[in-house]
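Issue 218. Parser rejects a valid record. Input:
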Amino acid sequence: MTETASAELSKSLRSRHITMISIGGIIGAGLFVGSSAAIATVGPAVILSYLLAGLVVLMVMRMLSEMAMASPGLGSFTEYIRLGLGDWAGFVSGWLYWYFWVVVVAIEAIAGAALLHEWIDLPVWQIGLILMVLLTAVNLMSARSYGEFEFWFSSIKVAAIIVFIMIAGAYAFGLTSPTESTFGNLQAHSGFAPFGWLSVLAGMTTVVFSLCGAEIATVAAAESSESTRVVSRMTSTIIVRILLFYVLSVLLIVSVVPWTEIRSGSSPFALALTRVSVPGAGTIMNLIVLTAVLSCLNSGVYVTSRVLFTLAARGDAPQSMVALNRRRVPARAILIGSSFGYFAVVLSILSPEVIFAFLVNASGALMIFVYLLACFAHLKLRRRIEQTAPERLTVKVWLFPWLSWATIAAMFGVLAAMALTRALASQFYASLVCAAVVLLAYWMRRRSEAPAVLHTSVGP
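Output the parser choked on:
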């Protein structure tokens, strides 16, 4: 049934899969629905929040690309953190990243079930279980099946945004509006930055999390026969995607609809389409949001299994997680990663809203912690490679080390803003507790290994 622990994952993902996985990784419900909270708290200046957050993510991805090109074939991007900072960093980043996506799987399962509940007369928890079973089965079939589903999920999301930009753009420029250009909405209601320019920085605290996910492609690239080239191509075009999918779409939203009419928790895309008189805008956006949720759920199940597989291969997780089935898929790692989703869905019987809020708080700032470790690993690896093998630096971070340090400073600024923002403080401190628990686990593991090492190294 299973292969040996030394078996390798399949190389069944194609270039088109990796490309769409990287695009789909940054287009989720955080854009289609979560952007409403950022717009409501920042105003039209939220465009700058998205641009700044996008530049931070771009820099992190550029660092990952540099490390991947210089030291190809390591698998999950957390292994570059291990290479740069040591085993402790690989252990901590790997488990934090795994836990983050385990929580995301549970969040997306409940969110998807809540959306489908509007059309299907079943309890939310039952719909959630059905979604979990379906997408777990997709991932158990093969990496290729995951890639195909994600390819089409991402294609739908990309097509939806392009169509939205065309429709909203025509209206904003006055081509289809009953009067004239609507770009005056950017200044008409208390100015472009109604809450002051500092709100632009504060807005980054919520915006940056909706941009997380681009790094999924670096995990999936390990199962592609052209992994290094694909990762390089993906990072070189990410800024275009950020500008097109986030900045441009949000710019058109606050141009078509006065920002004062946008309420947190609702879809600003649906509101903009309604303003443009697109029939059935609400239903259309619900279907697109559902696609985004299922895409994220599909990727979450995939990522948790591959990260757990990598941790096990390094001895940081039970060796049974390395075993592959006949389709060269880490089935046990998939089932372990998805089990938390099943548990959360069943718990949602008590109160879907309470469980959902708890899960959001539980994920908090974990990705910022992981990104910070990646940045520090890059700084150390870059200097090491420059001294030993500078010819391996075929992809380089711009203006090194100044932009690298600026990226680190920006992320520390986001964390500080979270700690000082009442609505986000609980997420920040919950994430600190998670990080402390993982560090403690690593310390206990090292302590338990020490006597064994001492015993074997000292003769009779």
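Fixed in the parser; the record now loads. The domain at 15-457 is CATH 1.20.1740.10 (Amino acid/polyamine transporter I).
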